[in-house]
Amino acid sequence: MFGHAQEEGITDVTYQDLLNGLKNPSAWLTYSGDYSGQRHSPLTQITPDNAHRLTAQWSFQTETMARGRGFEATPLFINGVLYVTGPNNFAWALHAKTGRPFWRYRRDLPNNLTYGASVPVNRGFGALGDRLFMTTLDAHLLALDMKTGSVLWDVELADYKIGHSATVAPLVVKDKVIVGISGGDYPTRGFLDAYEPATGKRIWRFYTVPAPGEPGSETWPDSPELLTRGGAGTWVTGSYDAESNTVFWGTGNPNPDYYGDDRKGDNLYTCSLIAMDPDTGRLKWYFQFTPHDLHDWDSNHVPVLAELTIGGRRRKVVMVANRNGFFYVLERSTGKLLLGKPFTDTSWARELGPDGHPIVVNEGTKGCIPDNWGSTNFMPPSFDPVLGLLFVTARETCATFVPEKQVIAPGRFSMGGTVRRELDKAYGALRAIDASTGERRWEFKFTTPSFAGVLSTASGVVIGGDNEGNVMAFDARTGEHVWHYQTGYPIWGGAPMTYLLDGRQYLVIGSGSTITAFALPL
Fold first, then answer.
1. Terminal-to-terminal C-alpha distance of the chain
2. Which member of 296, 298, 384, 466 is catalytic?
3. Torsion angle of the four alpha carbons 43, 48, 50, 55, in this order, in degrees rounded to the nearest 10
4. Which of 192, 200, 295, 360 has its Cα between 20 and 30 A from that of 374?
């Protein structure tokens, strides 16, 4: 511990603060900035015309790194302090103007981690009152004191020894901390949970693979044992619509990933968007993007809420640019498909059928379909509601899938085959998609496929990044590249965030073992 974050006058975060979201431009209180998942800031100091003048103001060396992965967390900004998690369940409170640490937390993790050892990342805090909430690689949920970083309570989500882990940034809704679980590449059963912020008591649990006899179980073989290890992890933070009191959350792949002969059927609720009542954990509706997935094409994406004019009607929608290569617009209240179009050049499928399912042309044994990382991944997109553009990091890859039956054992990977990639045909791109039509407005190509998340602002700036380590700024209207900074490590999984402090706009992103803040010169 280095000090107390209360030096900056910390006040309790209320549910009303969370509802207000980015209406307060000097706060960033949730993973996406607000409940909508738009990751679109109202700040306007940094513009397409002056972004080339951005310079690094400070950097913080975090003393931890996820090999082969990235710095995937989004910091929270509360009254002059950045609260950020890092790989291997480190966490810090940093002075937002200087990067000076107030406190540091490090979890004492067991040495026999399963999934948590292979993916040692974390995507951020949730906040309510004077508490921060963090998931752990050994599948626990913690509450930390915001002022000191000390642990207030610690509850187990699931048994890490059989393959569970937790990397998601919690979503706080009303008086509940909602969290998902990782580990779908092991023989585990996914779920979404809600907990009491004060005590850590579990309020409800929704299993994303139904039990025998429950709705959706008919889409699996009649095998109780199979349903207990069906996958469908929930490891990316969802979004929330307060008007309809609905939480939207993506689900992951079925297990085994590539071998489907033993799990005939659509395999609900894998590779889906689920709409949940946060008070009860009741499923309102679902939409499955990739039935009977054979490619590890999770639907663990941030759902983006918006209002769009489609077919001459103004509609409240939820949008997803999906790992399977399609961009979807769904009616928020019912899950009805309003629009579905490819946003990549995938040859796996080029259109959707009347049921909304992709009409598959090539399952992957013929080569050249998106690899197991998909046409995009968990890295957050952003949405500019004035321009009507969704900005997403797209991946154009070429792979052949080789399924193989394997012996399933608790605590061991069960991918069910291998993937052969043709790396010379792969590249990445930041793409602007017209959300009302699904058409591409512009793109900026990257040398290799990127995992960088995206931020947009009301001034017309889009911030992204590439696998070569560049954080980059673009003109939101045209895609013109106006600035870049070489961080020295791939921008991998994380997304930039921005805040206003003492009248100055800062831009922050993590890369490798470093967090860097940028601003315009004074």
1. 32
2. 296
3. 80
4. 192
SS3 407: coil
Q: pLDDT digit string (tens) for 317-342?
A: 999 999 999 999 999 999 999 999 99
Between CA 319 and CA 334 the distance in angstroms is 13
- pLDDT, residue 5, reads 52
Output the CA–CA distances (angstroms, integers) from residue 455 to 41, 136, 236, 307, 421, in the order listed.
8, 26, 17, 19, 30
Biggest CA pair distance of the chain: 66
What residue type is 397 in one-letter code? T
φ/ψ of residue 375, rounded to 5: -80, -20
State pTM to two decimals.
0.97
Question: Before 256, cis peptide (omega within 30)?
Answer: yes
Q: Are 127 and 133 in contact, with CB atoms under 8 Å apart?
A: yes
Using the structure block, give the residue that is written with the tokens 């090999």: 67
Radius of gyration of the chain (CA): 21
- pLDDT tens, residue by residue, 368-381: 899 999 999 999 99
CA distances to 15, 127, 129, 178, 194 from 174, in Å: 6, 11, 11, 10, 11
Dist CA 353 CA 299 (whole Å): 19
3-state secondary structure 68-133: CCCCCCCCEEECCEEEEEEHHHEEEEEECCCCCEEEEEECCCCCCCCHHHHCCCCCCCEEEECEEE
Length of the chain: 522
Q: 87 phi and psi, to 5 degrees?
A: -55, 155
> Which has the closest alpha carbon to 3: 64, 94, 90?
94
371 counts as catalytic: no
CA dist 270 and 255 (Å) reads 9
In three state form, how does the secondary structure of 60-73 look? EECCCCCCCCCCCC
Are the C-beta atoms of residues 221 and 265 closer than 8 Å to each other? Answer: yes
Non-local CB neighbours of 242 within 8 Å, separated by 6+ positions: 19, 35
Burial (0-12, 13-18, 19+ Cβ within 10 Å), 472: buried
Torsion of CA 273, 275, 276, 277, to 10 degrees: 170
Identify the CA nearest to 209 among candidates 161, 170, 266, 134. 266
Percent of the chain having pLDDT more than 70?
A: 98
